[in-house]
Amino acid sequence: MAKAIAATARVYEGIQGSQVGDYDVGLMLAFQKGNEAAFEELVERNHSRVIGLIYRFVSNMSESEDLAQEVFLRIYRARDSYRPAAKFSTWLFRITANVSLNALRAHSSRRDDVSIERLAEWSDKPQVPADTEARTPEHRLQRTELQEKVQEAIRALPEKQQIAVVLNKYEGMGYASIAKTLGCSTMAVKSLLARARENLKDRLLLYIRTGRDRLRIS
């Protein structure tokens, strides 16, 4: 059974010039043909990644695990309608983003439960890890406080800006992939990230200069 799954996946890995050339697409197509073991492998390969992505939004592990089940249930139900028009990860992230958005809307009255960690120095470019050993206790305390302010600023971002930031920052996705995930244009993604960056800068500069936050981000 495993050999049959792998053979199906390799067929689609070998297609040149196509967006379906990845192992997970092969698994999904094998599942589409009735191979339940292929779906089990698909879940095993992607389960942790989906939970991690959802957690960036809801900041609750138990809820993240529940929502991950919803993601894979949607994938299971989409078996007959699935078409490999894009990378499997793009399709998976789109479903995950939609489930996450629904969860955010469901408890929008308590948006302070939504956090994205370690974004104090966020940008849409790769970052160089800081030398934590060289920091003094005072420096670390200041950085911790700044991180808390960043989390507050992120929680105030509109939903799509949050998703764009997470996909870019944590999943390393480029503009085109994020655009496919969100169902918008590349220019729209650039605009989302630019506005998110400006919103964060606006709020954090105010905190740094005055020690006070604005009540809202325009």
Task: Describe the protein's architecture and organization.
By secondary structure, the chain is mainly alpha-helical. The protein has nine helices and no strands. Helix 3 (36-58) runs antiparallel to helix 4 (61-77).
What's the arrangement of secondary structure elements?
Elements: H1 2-13, H2 23-32, H3 36-58, H4 61-77, H5 88-106, H6 137-155, H7 159-169, H8 175-182, H9 186-210
Helix pairs in contact: 1-2, 2-3, 3-4, 3-5, 4-5, 5-8, 6-9, 7-9, 8-9
Task: Provide a brief overview of the structure.
With 218 residues, the chain is mainly alpha-helical. It is 66% helix and 0% strand.
Properties at a glance:
Arc Repressor Mutant, subunit A, 9 helices, Rna Polymerase Sigma Factor, Chain: A, disordered C terminus, mainly alpha, about 220 residues
